[in-house]
């Protein structure tokens, strides 16, 4: 295993890691411990490339604020089985090895779309190979004779997310697909705000439902899908899909492909464009935020100021501090997103079993109307729609709940806390009843310098380190 890589939640949405994060959050640890930090490259600095595009630079943060020797690793895959790229930052790589690497990267690029040719076939010729997950042209059928294949009709071609097997690789893509309820809510809410161009980043089901809706409404809604799952290229015209890695803003199809996004954004002058991104739930908030900022730059290239594209970033609530640290103009909404093929994240559950997945958006919260019949209401003080159990606290002057449970006010802490927490006299704060009482952990001191006044991210030592770099 690559040193350190196994210890961090990368592009990973498996249940376990999400639950782990949830438990950390529940215990008050909020992820402020030892781990890997992504160091974003300075402007113009090239990083070595793996088959998934430019790699990311990682630094392991140790107690005392020192970071160990830094290294490059794949941005998209956590498991070495999926991508075993590893290079120390200061390692010298021979020209021969660079060339071999480039040849390997080229060989791993997927084939091009054949959607247009496939659509021209007769109904009795349109075959899909279930084993290879490929649409087959007549000349290709013989080589799949030993596989299970089936005819596909126009209706199936319009719903690729029902035809394709969701990628369930726990350590990479883990595709959780929206329920009709969540997808419909998103499309309705965005249409109500007047958005007519939809950029779906890692949201293949949303793209197909947007397209279906558009066909019913004379092309009123235009959408483009950016996703690392190249199987989707088979179902779309080249101007509807880009093979894209959202952790490093890499277009596998090079200039031609990034040009598709540029054209999509440029054409939207006068039409309102919105981006909906549903990344795999992992810890790589910083690179995601960086990619979304780069997409925004393409939209606002004529403007001097750094504006953010209207967006909805779908992610678990316990990433709120990290997301807001990177993109402070976003706010978290109470809406609970649920998924078809996820055992836990289902609508109607209560307590800890509710979906932890929320919307982070720069659309004003008061304008995103959450459905009353699903249990949301408008808080006129907070000026946003909230979940029914999120009761307004007059002492905090806000609706405090993040996790969907009813929080309660602690007058000693002077804030609202989770229902399972009790005020601990020894620690002088609220915590779970079985917390490690009196320990440094319980006191939530800074990981780097031990101060009780701030957390690692706000540590002057950490700021100094960043500046030095
Ligand atoms: C949690 S699923 C979201 C699917 C969405 N809920 C839907 O129903 O349309 C994550 C999506 O991101 C894609 N993905 C995973 N890693 C990616 C990467 N590095 N770059 C771009 N897309 C990625 C997956 O293929 C998948 O479609
Ligand atoms: Zn890779
Ligand atoms: Zn096959
Ligand atoms: Zn309120
Ligand atoms: Zn309160
Ligand atoms: Zn308390
Ligand atoms: Zn205690």
Compact overview of the structure:
With 469 residues, the protein is α+β, with helices and mostly antiparallel strands. Helices cover 24% and strands 19% of the residues.
Can you walk through the features of this model?
This protein has four domains: 5-107, no CATH class; 115-157; 170-387, Rossmann fold; 417-468, no CATH class. The protein is of the alpha+beta class and 469 residues long. The strands form seven sheets. It has an eight-stranded mixed beta sheet with strand order 13-12-11-10-14-15-17-16, sandwiched between helices. Strands 1-4-5-6 form a four-stranded antiparallel beta sheet, with no helix packed on it. The protein has helices spanning 15-26, 95-107, 115-119, 138-141, 154-157, 160-163, 180-192, 204-216, 254-267, 285-299, 320-326, 460-468, and strands spanning 35-39, 49-50, 53-54, 56-61, 71-73, 86-88, 127-129, 134-136, 149-151, 195-201, 222-227, 241-245, 250-251, 272-277, 311-316, 331-333, 357-361, 376-379, 384-387, 408-410, 415-417, 422-424, 429-431. It binds S-adenosylmethionine and zinc ion (6 copies). One zinc ion (ZN) is lined by residues 393, 395-396, 400, 409, 415-416. One of its GO terms (molecular function) is zinc ion binding. Keywords: Cytoplasm, Metal-binding, Methyltransferase, S-adenosyl-L-methionine, Transferase, Zinc, Zinc-finger. Its main location: cytoplasm.
List the helices and strands and how they pair.
Blueprint: H1 15-26, E1 35-39, E2 49-50, E3 53-54, E4 56-61, E5 71-73, E6 86-88, H2 95-107, H3 115-119, E7 127-129, E8 134-136, H4 138-141, E9 149-151, H5 154-157, H6 160-163, H7 180-192, E10 195-201, H8 204-216, E11 222-227, E12 241-245, E13 250-251, H9 254-267, E14 272-277, H10 285-299, E15 311-316, H11 320-326, E16 331-333, E17 357-361, E18 376-379, E19 384-387, E20 408-410, E21 415-417, E22 422-424, E23 429-431, H12 460-468
Parallel strand pairs: 10-11, 10-14, 11-12, 14-15
Antiparallel strand pairs: 1-4, 2-3, 4-5, 5-6, 7-8, 7-9, 12-13, 15-17, 16-17, 18-19, 20-21, 22-23
Bound molecules: S-adenosylmethionine and zinc ion (6 copies).
Domain GRF-type: 50-92
Organism: Salarias fasciatus (Jewelled blenny)
Protein name: GRF-type domain-containing protein
